[in-house]
Amino acid sequence: MARITGPVCRLCRRDGLKLFLKGTRCDTPKCAIERRDSAPGMHQFRRGKQTDYGLHLREKQKVKHYYGVLERQFRGYFQRASRSKGNTGNTLMSLLERRLDNVVHRLGFGASRAQARQLVAHGHITVNGRRCDIPSYIVVAGDVVRVKNRVGSLQMVQGNLTENRRLVPEFLSLDAGAIPEGRVVRLPEANDISIPIQTQLIIELCSQ
Question: Are residues 63 and 120 in the same domain?
Answer without folding.
Answer: no
